[in-house]
Amino acid sequence: MPESSLALRSRLKLQYQLQLNDPHRHGLVEDPALLRWTYARANVYPHFRPTIKTSLLGIVWGVGPVVFWTYVFAKRRAQKEKEIKEGKRELLAHLRF
């Protein structure tokens, strides 16, 4: 007779709480879910699957900021050069060789 997942979960939770709160226990009480989570966090790359979503996120967070800041600095520099040529802004550093 198969148990429902809710009944199984409540039974496992009760068993874990009984072990955890036992005043005569010796040693550690290990939570299997916590062990699985810790292992997965420590070993990300062996279990990583490249998907469309992770590829797009890599592009957005890896390449996106570089492209954005390159555009911002280039636009700002072009605007300053235009203002200097028009005489609206003074050239702060005169370089002579």
Automatic annotation (TrEMBL):
Bilayer topology term: Single-pass membrane protein
Keywords for this protein: Electron transport, Membrane, Mitochondrion, Mitochondrion inner membrane, Respiratory chain, Transmembrane, Transmembrane helix, Transport
Principal subcellular localisation of the protein: mitochondrion
Sequence intervals crossing the membrane: 55-74
Cell location: Mitochondrion inner membrane
GO cellular component: mitochondrial inner membrane
Entry annotated with the keyword Transit peptide: no
One Pfam family it belongs to: NDUF_B4
Family listed: Belongs to the complex I NDUFB4 subunit family.
Assembly and binders: Complex I is composed of 45 different subunits.
Physiological role: Accessory subunit of the mitochondrial membrane respiratory chain NADH dehydrogenase (Complex I), that is believed not to be involved in catalysis. Complex I functions in the transfer of electrons from NADH to the respiratory chain. The immediate electron acceptor for the enzyme is believed to be ubiquinone.
Protein name in the entry: NADH dehydrogenase [ubiquinone] 1 beta subcomplex subunit 4
Name of the gene this protein is made from: NDUFB4
